[in-house]
Amino acid sequence: MVNKEIYSELKKRIVYLDYKPKQLLNIKDLAKEFGVSPMPIREVLILLETEKLVHIIPNNGIYVTDVSFQELKDVFEIRLFLIGLVGRLAAQRITAEELDKLKELNKKIKQEKNRNKLIQLDAEFHNLVNSSTKNQTLAETLKRLRNQIGRLWFFAKENDAYSQQIPKDFEELIKALEDRDQNKSQEILKNHAIHFIEQIKSSLYSE
User: Fold this and answer.
1) What domains can be seen in the chain, in order of their start residue?
2) C-alpha angle with apex 156: 153 to 158, nearest 5 degrees?
3) Residue 168 in 3-state DSSP?
4) The pTM is what?
5) According to DSSP H, which parts of the chain are helical?
6) How far is it, in rounded angstroms, from Cα 98 to Cα 128?
7) Residues near 160 by Cβ (< 8 Å), separated by ≥ 6?
8) When comparing pLDDT for 207 and 177, which is higher?
9) pLDDT tens digits, residue range 14-32?
10) Is the predicted pLDDT of residue 158 greater than 50, yes or no?
């Protein structure tokens, strides 16, 4: 079984760009850092490769994957389609307990000023919405896709207006889910994803 603590830490370092794209990762150094044998590190890196966060080249090394904007465009198109399905299924299947958890998470998001923590809370919110569909394959697929585009946050300039819009979007989504409004939930999630990409484009291509 993969060491979840090491997996979470290495994934966080990649997504938060502590490890830069194309950076070489040394299994022996990581094993020494985490106080384990090389085998658990190797198992974690194999899993991260399935999520396209590292690339293992036999007889060469293990590298953090580069950020390919064409590939991310492809991922976004798939994700945009799937989150529409999430909106519809979540509106049908979400429980009162899950709605309460979303409300608590959104309170934290409203108050959070630290960018890294905001990104983490945003991911937790989306993961909970995805899991509320009661479709494990859908939830796991979206989690993998999100890992691939997560690094885009850190290529974008900080934008207070966008950060403040996130909890507003989530508040509308929670209301739509409470009302069991499938069309509205689908629309809100799709628009939220589109706004994210627009924010990234604006940051990357602004002078």
Assistant:
1) 4-64 (1.10.10.10), 69-205 (1.20.120.530)
2) 95
3) helix
4) 0.81
5) 4-15, 27-34, 38-50, 69-93, 96-111, 115-131, 136-149, 160-178, 182-205
6) 7
7) none
8) 177
9) 988 899 999 999 999 999 9
10) yes
